[in-house]
User: What shape does this take?
Amino acid sequence: MKALVMALLLLLPAPGLAADPVYIADVPLEDPVAEARAKALMAELRCLTCQNQAILDSNAPQAQTMRVEVRERISAGEDPEEVRAWFVERYGDWVSFVPPARTDTALLWAAPFLFLLLGGVLLARRIRR
Amino acid sequence: MIPELGHFALWLAAAAALLQSVAPTIGLWRDEEALSGLAVPAAVAQGLFTALAFAALTWAFVVSDFSVALVAANSHTMKPDMYLVTGVWANHEGSLLLWVLVMALAGAGVAVAPATLGPRFRARVLSVQGIVSLGFFAFLLFASNPFDRLIPAPTEGQGLNPLLQDLGLAVHPPLLYIGYVGLSVAFAFAVAGMLENVVGPAWAKATRPWVAGAWAMLTLGIALGSYWAYYELGWGGWWFWDPVENAALMPWLAATALLHSIAVVMKRDALRAWTLLLAVAAFSLSMMGTFIVRSGLLTSVHAFAVDPARGLFLMILMALYIGGALTIYAFAAGRVAEGRQFAAVSRESALVANNLLLTVILGVVLVGTMYPMALQAAGGAQISVGPPYFNMTIVPIVLVMAFLMGVAPLLGWRRSATGHLAARLLPAAVAAALAVVVALTLFGVRGIGALLGFGAAAWLAVASISILAKRGLTLNSAGMALAHLGVAVSILGATASGALQREALVAMRVGDAIQMGPWRAELMDVRPIAGPNWTAVEARLDVRRGGDSVAILRPQSRMFVAPAQETTESGRAGWWTGELYSVLGQPDGTGQWQVHLWFKPMVRLIWWGALLMAFGGLLALGGRVRALKPRRGVEMSGSPIPQAA
Amino acid sequence: MKRLFWLLPLLGFAALLALMAGNLGKPTEAVIVSHMIGKPVPDFAFEGTAGAQGLSRVDLAAGGPPVLVNVFASWCLPCAVEAPQLQALADNGAIVHGIAVRDTAANVAGFLGKHGNPFTRIGMDVQGRMMLALGASGVPETYVIDGKGIIRFQHLGEIRADHVPILLAELEKAK
Assistant: This one.
């Protein structure tokens, strides 16, 4: 938690310099369906300057900027997956909390099934026929 | 002077731990009972001296003795009194001392508890515990001395992180540590059991109360941590699948599995090797959790101060203890063997299925937490494994588990008849169907996951209560029923607060109002206020429902003086149906304030459920402790609940 | 075979320990580099400020020599720290454009008055969205962009004295 506070401190305006970053309001989209889609995506995009937070939960200025970007793109009719891809194109897979489905993450996605299978085999051997 | 005494007591405690580990090891080897018997007084001495050391550090914090470096770095005279005490464990050194204290007290507890498995086994258990404590004493004394002096002493301390100045801090870490370290007793029992070759029903009976107690405390500790994050971090979430949370969850999962598998050993002398592995794993994962939190290995929202050198020390301790235990396991497990087999439809198999699913969750959490690091170490891409992955993989498993938890307690040991099941489970099935229908029609829930969640909660709740109908009211059956009911309650809270949540985010001026569902919230005023060591901007939101004022919410944005930091304090008001949760955001410079308002239905049930679980665990522990006492002759007068059938 | 089976937990733990040991002491803050390097600058056009002309993608892709684009803000402390280095780069013949992020004209003017103005053009990115388009993860950041408007190099964080030759070399490489 200390780390979180440190991270927030780094983003606070520096003393002795001009005030704050220009204020950008979080304005929900008019259309509740679009807003819900935007928020679902915001919960899955990772804040770049925080310690392991989604942009939905972060007060960091850049997370705010990212929320504006997400809302504008969703309200312009983009699909949430297109918006996610736009961010991934710029920041890599790291920016999405959903790991990609690729060969290098095959083990990750297969893990639940592998564990179930392994446990099932071991269990079957213990059961009396 | 008193800090030096504390430091000296710490050395004495370490010496006692050394005696406690060496004397019984030699004594048992040479068969000299006098020597191995020394373990008992040594364990008691270790407990006493550690308590003295802890008291000395507490004193230094309470009188704000800034000549102690740790106090200077983490305390402040302006800090409210309660946080002077809790500040003792709000830092690396102090919390480690608390860890060692709990460990030493647990060792003393083992020493004075009746040795149901004979003095030889007790000496062995104490020697294992002594060895484990010794490593942590070395870590404290050589790498994290809490009594280091700071000369010249500063006139004022640097203060405690504001996020930690909270009642949550007073109770969350101690509970978590009692849980973590309580599992070290199970670890010692497992290692001693393997070395002495006594793993069987009697061993399980002696180990189980320790597991139940540790599990209950760990459950409370995690639940409190979750509640604390919920109201303090100001995002309204209660579980983030953050590495540090996962690190605490993994020992809990192992302990939960252990609590169930040890019952199988106790009742049926089956699953011995598996239970041993779980007992070793539970404490190993606790150590790993502490290591992850302190080494800065993973990026987390709850990270402690990071120090790789300390990480290395802890890692060596882990390698020694976990590696040592697993090596013994590799040799002993084959000899211990699994014990008896069982039929496909039996209480055993249902408990094993529960163990299997808990272990799969544990495995998934471990893989998910470590995968990004492993992939990068292998030269692969930089990825994030976050909440979507864990929810997607773990929620379905939890739902299956909830189903099995309803069935398992109704099955018999060995080979169960199935004829009675349909009749016994009918109420639960009806309740589940009813819950789904109500959610669909009355609340308009459409998500399949949420519907299943409501169904699972109702199913499990009714099935848990019917445990009592089948087994009669004993401490044990009541404990199990309550714990399972707790799971149902938590599932209900988690499902409802997610699926039925309402939210509004607006920029408002004083006098503006927003309508959110049936609630109308008016911003009455925004004004500065002062606390003991902070000032804040506080908003007052008058929430009305149908014209009647139902709550005044007071979210704040706090500025702490020492250290200078800002925190957001959520403004909340709650009823049994749910909770209004508000956060005050930034001003936009034109007189508008960003206000974030939620209604989270039944959110508190998440933690009430955990409380029920822990309480159930303690009841079962009571049942066990009672069973340890001599049974024949006089019935224990203190038992309020008659033993049925 | 049987013996090997009981060794599995130990082996699993050893693997985990090796992984953790290998990562101990490495920085936990992930450094997120832009994945836009080698790609063209996204389309943008910003108004100028403080007497400087504005900046747009067209200016960057006009076929001139490679330039530095510095993302900065008046409220950012490291930006004030790196100001002398930016001046040094400009003095060494580099063309430096600025993008002021979430800032006001008055604050930018004050900042430049206090810390010097090395910029040829300055674009006012009031919403800060150019940062996202570039794949920037913070302020300040500095990009080398060649005459065709392709992003060739990204420098994260403030420019220190020893970074100046590196950036000059990158500019040379981008010709």
